Every structure is written in structure tokens, then in C-alpha cells.
Amino acid sequence: MNILFSEYFKLKLRGTENWFDPVIGHDTNLFIDPFLVEKTSHKIPEFKGSHTKVINFFNEAFQEAAKLVHRNRDTYKPLLRSFEFPEVNELYLGYSKPGNRGAGSSKGYAQLLLSAVFELIDAGITSISCFEELELFKEGFGADRIGDMMANLLKPELVKYTQRICEGKKIKLHPQRLRNMYHADGRVWQDDKVRLPCIKTVWGNYFVILSPKAFLRHLPTVDIVDFWNHSYSHENDVIRSQFGNKIKKSVDRETMFEAARKSAHLRESYLKAVKNRQADPYDIQNDPDLLHKWYHIGKKQFDVDPVNFKSPTTSAEFITVVQQIIERYKHHVETRRGWQVIRDDSTEKGKKEKVVQRHFEGVISAYCEANNIDFSPEVDVGKGPVDFKFSSGYKNRVLIEVKLARNTKFLHGLKKQLPAYLKAEKIQKGFFIVIVYEEEDVEKVNGIRREIPKLKKDFSLDIEMLVIDAQPQKSASRL
């Protein structure tokens, strides 16, 4: 089930609202960036002083860790538990697939975080001045993990913010127990019962926590590669004093982290430069990567071109329905100017494969929901994540890979990935969808068509390739 928060509560939005309108049942690939919290939290009543609160949490952890004479599980167990940050499902933000029931920050990740604190203490670092410093010390502080930390540490503020928005919109609030609401003495997390908006469906109740748009980014502001590039360009003497004159700009990530851990000067220089840059949240209004707009596109497409397919009763009928749904996407791109959405206006080039896959998901999911077809993105089939899976019961299942013809691994996806996924799931039918951006892509695709019969024979699978023309003007070529 996918539905916008505003859609369920019948809110008419102007687009200027300062809160993010989540797609319920589906995580949007955004996270709460501590850098943006520091820059903008003073403008939002509920979040004044919130960045200081986050810094104090970690500095208190440093102090407690530094007091440990013996580092064994019995002595650091309370500290370890305080570093467990479960995913805040009520935000509908993050990078888990499918839906929004991700693993969050597991106990293994808490151990990684604690080991990083111990390493820093051993290096003489006993406090941090800003959260972003942690991202420069050790591998593993990705956007999803940072988002989980921030969401847990700011949960009381986020709840109060949500309550204020809902009270202004006259949205009824319902009691719900939330994990990790407060951090008590002894670094023990405590749950609490709060009141939140609730979306009630036949699949269950979905409680919601809203977040300010000003806090949300797609990628972290602070990045180890960005740190190295800055240091190499602006602090070359310091770099060479540490690693010698033969050091090159292109090095492995561990070398980058080593430089960050060793030099407070490099960290301070980089963070100062970052803070002097314009700190912008993700542009949700224009949404160039279709992180959120995919849902609107699908709804609009179904409204202008509604199709209700006959409910399949056999495997053959199910495959036919899936193919017809895919054909609706092809029709949308080629004849309803859907190609404009997946091309960049400024460069006039086609957008990245991930953007196309989100576009495909938006249009397809609208037809699937209307026709009671289960449609899941990025399903892990044991051999890796397949792009999409259609299903209706166990017997009626189809896998789909969506690739750009310009992708250098295009042929690998057709000859290796899709067959491996189908075998792993014991599924017979697979569609390989190819997006063509330029005329040279057409020639490439036409040359690969002859591979399909051989693939079917070699793997005893029914693999079908469908080509979608996303060129800016309809080509005369017959694909």
C-alpha cells in the first residue's frame, strides 16, 4: 500500500509547507542530516538547541568510554546498548527495501560505533565539536545510519513538531508507544506513549512522524572522498608530511580515513570549508532524482490512462497482464512525453538508471495497485537485489530488470544477472526492459536481440526483452 500522508487526510497543499509529506508504506531515500540540523534548527521552535543535544550525547559517551579500565563486554554493555539506534519506521525515510521495514542500526553496527569511539580515545581524541567529525573517523557512517541516529536522538522534538502540524490541520491524534523516546540516567533508553496521526488500512495501522524539509538530504554533507579532495588540494603539505611526497590524489578509502584520524588540522580545515558552503536540503519541490515525485507521476498517469485488466486465473494470463502493464509504461514514455521526465533539461541527456527505475516504479505501481497485483522493488533473491518482482500467489511470479542501453554492464544484466535471479527464485518468466536514450543505443540493442534465443535455450528460461524509446524526438528506427 502506498498513499501520501496529505492524500489520506485530504489536505490541500500549496508546496510551500515546511514539513515533508511522506509516502506511507514506502521509504523515501532521504535522511536527517546533522549538518542541516545545526544550520537551520534555530528557526523551528521544537528543535532549538537540538544539535547541541546530539553533540552532548556523544561527548558523554566519550567520557564514559574513557573511564573504562577494562574493555570487555560486561563493562561496556550499557554503553553499547545506548548506541543501538533502531530505524524510526514512522518517518518513512531511509534506504531500506521494500516498504519501510528496514533493519535500522543493528547491534553489530552499535559495536562498530563503540569500537570507533575506543579508537579515537586511544588516538587522544576525547570529544567532538560537531557530529560530522564522526563521519571522518571510520567507514560505515552512511546516510541511512546517520539518519537512524538523528531520528532517535531527536525523536521527542520530532513528535512535538508533528503534533503541532496536526493540531493546525485538525488531524486527530492516537496513542502509540514509541521506542527510544528518552535517554535516562545510565545511558538507558526508555520507551514512552505519545499521540500521533494514524493511517488506518485493511493491512494495519500506520503511525506517522513528520520531519522538516529543511533537515533532509539525499547524500551526507560531509563525505570522506570530499574530505580527501579538499585536503589534497588545500592542505597538500600536511598530506605529504604524513604520507610522503609520492602520495597521489587517487588512494583507497582506508588511506583517507587514516589521514582524517591522524590530523585534527585536516579535519578542522575541511569542516570549516564545508560550513562556509551553502548548505541546502534536497529540492523536494523539483525533485530531480524522482525520490518523491515518482508517486505523483504514477497517480497522474493512471488518472489520464486508467486500465483495469481482467483478473488472471492462470500463469499464462498473469504473464499477459504483467506484459500489458509494462506496455502502459512504454506507452507513457513514448507517446505521452514521459521521456521528458527522465531526461535532464539542462544537459538534454538521459538521467541515471536509478532515476529511470523510480519513474518505472511510479507508473507501474499505480496500475498494479488498481489491479490487485503485488509489485515489489529491489527484492533480494539471494544472488543480489532484482529490480522488480510481480507476484500473485506463489505460482504466478515474474522478475524484471530495467537497464539503460548505455550502461556498460548492460549485457551482463541480460546474460548473467536476470538468469541467476530467475534460477534462485525458481521463476520461469523474466522481462529485460531496455531504455534507449540515443540513436547509437538503438544499434546496440538491435545487435543484442540475437542473444535472446540462445539465453532461453542455455538456461531453459523464458526471457523476453522489451525496448522503450526515450529519445527526445520519436526516432524513425524500428526497434
What does this structure look like?
With 479 residues, this protein is an alpha+beta fold. It contains 17 helices and 13 strands. Helix content is 44%, strand content 16%. The protein is globular and about 65 Å long. The protein folds into 2 domains: 3-222, no CATH class; 293-469, Restriction Endonuclease (3-Layer(aba) Sandwich). The strands form 5 sheets. A 5-stranded mixed sheet has the order 9-10-11-12-13, with helices on both faces. A two-stranded antiparallel sheet has the order 1-2.
Summary tags:
single chain; 479 residues; alpha+beta; Restriction Endonuclease; 2 domains; 5-stranded mixed beta sheet
Short description:
The protein is an alpha+beta fold and 479 residues long. 44% of the residues lie in helices and 16% in strands.
Helix content: 40-55%
Number of helices: 17
Strand order of the largest sheet: 9-10-11-12-13
User: What order do the SSEs take from the amino end to the carboxyl end, as H and E?
Assistant: EHEEHHHHHHEEEEEHHHHHHHEEEHEHHE
What summary fits the major beta sheet? 5 strands, mixed
Straight-line N-to-C gap? 35 Å
- Unreliable spans are 98-105
Extended strand count: 13
Q: What percentage of the residues does DSSP assign to strands (E)?
A: 15-25%
Average pLDDT level: 88
Structure class: alpha+beta
Q: Tell me the radius of gyration.
A: 25 Å
What is the global morphology?
globular
Total count of domains: 2
